[in-house]
Design brief:
5-stranded mixed beta sheet; 511 residues; 25% strand; Immunoglobulin-like; 8-stranded mixed beta sheet
């Protein structure tokens, strides 16, 4: 899995009846996946009704989670605007990702060609492929709408209707609900551009398995050219993890549907390559190896972390995420929450739910400690987060130091509350306070959490997340009856813990 990944958006299903009643106030798109030539698809759309003399049409430069320019406009060519009589209307390309369309109020249709961003995982590039689209005619299409569909800067927060022409045997796997218009046409709706981009799809002859986790429907969709009946194996592997996550989150998952879209490419090369991009209610996973034996374990790890993102940023996020600018985004300073706390839940859940042994948990902590030491400890997490595009050298520390800070925060909360409250409870309270339709102000979150918890927690944030004081692992692990050797990085149980240590450990990991 490519780890330059993260941050995504709120996904809310938009009622189709509302869109149907407001057909002139939508982006009405047509995407042709049936007549593909030279790995290019034809895209056309009717813009929403407007009275604009001109409009700036945008294909994203960046998408959430990637902190370098992806420039998806580079795959777009031959953009043409016409009026209702088919007469061309003047357009000009402003840069790699935007076009000026003149006399927009008279534009009836805009059409263009889109080339795929990758056609094989064999090619070694530093660019993550999971945010792009891939077209293999008559086989499979991995669709990320940020590379196919755009919007006018002057017409935002507008619904989308997407009509897709495709092979009659193909099925669209996605968190969105695709409806069959006829044997060669699907139709799907999105509340706005953010939701559309946050909802990738994989089109192919289906190899799918559905799981029911509480009230949540989970789709596992798999594609491999040789192996056509593997989704059931994968679903069986991840079902236990998802059920334990449900228990960990209080017995209810805050999402009705989730989709795992898995593309696997067989290779003669040695090794295993993974690339992935998480979304609010789905995950794209791209894998390549010479043997599928690595796949279930790799997917187990991905399933656990990515599925926890239904908590944050789906239900807990700042205005910077809610109102993401696809050309010049402003970064939130709370990647410690989006990624660090998500990764902490990923390592805390297995021990809390008794899925692993204490020894395995200790090894996980030791691996995180070792990883943390590879990064600069003189720069704060809020600074890295706000400057994620220029501090990519430090980004991965959110997955190493981040969960260790989450561990300390968890123990501190349980200590202050007499074992009654931890980060599990905090995240549930934050979900209730904000939820998918709300967002917090970036500068207010630390104070909001302090108001919900204890004054001492503000000092914790000031020292370890806004500040650069070393993670207090030795002190905090001692509170729950563990020793930590700062020289060797070794974590182990205290031989004779006292009753206070045992009580706090039980509240923390139920051991």
């Amino acid at each position: 899995m490519n780890n330059l990944i993260k941050l995504v958006f709120v996904l809310i299903i938009f009622p189709t009846t509302i869109i149907a009643q407001s057909s002139k106030k939508i982006y009405n798109y047509n995407i042709d996946l049936l007549h593909v030539s030279n790995d290019e698809v034809t895209v056309s759309f009717a813009p929403p009704k407007n009275n604009l003399k001109q409009g700036k049409f945008i294909i994203p430069k960046l998408v959430p989670g990637f902190y370098q320019a992806m420039n998806f406009g580079q795959y777009v060519s031959n953009l043409v605007a016409t009026d209702k009589n088919g007469k061309k209307i003047s357009t000009e390309r402003l840069d790699q990702n935007s076009w000026m369309v003149h006399d927009l109020k008279h534009v009836n249709k805009i059409s263009y060609q889109v080339a795929d961003g990758w056609d094989s995982l064999e090619k070694d590039t530093y660019e993550a492929k999971s945010a792009g689209s891939m077209f293999i005619k008559d086989s499979v299409f991995v669709i990320n709408y940020n590379s196919l569909v755009g919007y006018f800067e002057e017409i935002k927060d507008t619904p989308y209707q997407i009509n897709i022409t495709k092979n009659k045997d193909f099925y669209a796997s996605s968190a969105l609900d695709y409806k069959k218009k006829d044997k060669n046409t699907d139709i799907v709706w999105a509340k706005d551009y953010r939701q559309l981009v946050d909802s990738p799809a994989m089109y192919c002859v289906p190899d799918t398995t559905w799981l029911k986790i509480g009230h949540t429907e989970v789709l596992v969709s798999f594609y491999n050219k040789q192996e056509r009946q593997y989704s059931k194996t994968i679903a069986h592997e991840i079902e236990n993890i998802l059920k334990n996550q449900q228990a960990y989150l209080g017995g209810t998952l805050p999402v009705n549907k989730y989709a795992f879209l898995i593309y696997y490419e067989s290779s003669n090369e040695k090794g295993f390559m993974g690339d992935g991009l998480e979304h609010s209610q789905s995950t794209v996973c791209l894998y390549r190896s010479g043997s599928m034996k690595f796949l279930p374990n790799a997917l187990n790890r991905v399933a656990s972390h990515e599925f926890f993102h239904i908590v944050t940023p789906l239900n807990i996020h700042s205005g910077e995420i809610q109102h993401y600018d696809f050309l010049n985004p402003s970064m939130s300073k709370h990647l410690w929450l989006y990624e660090g706390m998500t990764e902490y839940a990923t390592i805390h859940m297995p021990i809390k739910q008794k899925m692993i042994s204490l020894e395995d948990f200790e090894k996980t902590l030791e691996e995180k400690i070792k990883g943390m030491k590879e990064f600069d400890d003189k720069v704060s997490f809020t600074e890295i987060s706000k400057n994620a595009m220029t501090r990519q050298d430090q980004y991965m520390n959110f997955y190493e130091k981040g969960p260790l800070l989450g561990l300390c925060l968890d123990i501190r909360l349980r200590e202050l509350s007499g074992g009654k409250m931890g980060t599990q409870d905090l995240m549930l309270q934050l979900m209730k306070k904000y939820g998918a339709g709300k967002y917090f102000n970036d500068d207010d979150l630390f104070d909001e959490i302090t108001t919900m918890t204890y004054p001492e927690i503000r000092t914790f944030f000031k020292d370890y997340i806004e500040g650069t004081q070393p993670v207090p692992l030795k002190e905090y692990l001692a509170k729950v009856g563990f020793t930590y050797d700062e020289n060797t990085g070794k974590v182990s149980l205290v031989p004779n813990p006292d009753s206070k240590q045992l009580a706090l450990r039980k509240a923390w990991i139920d051991q």
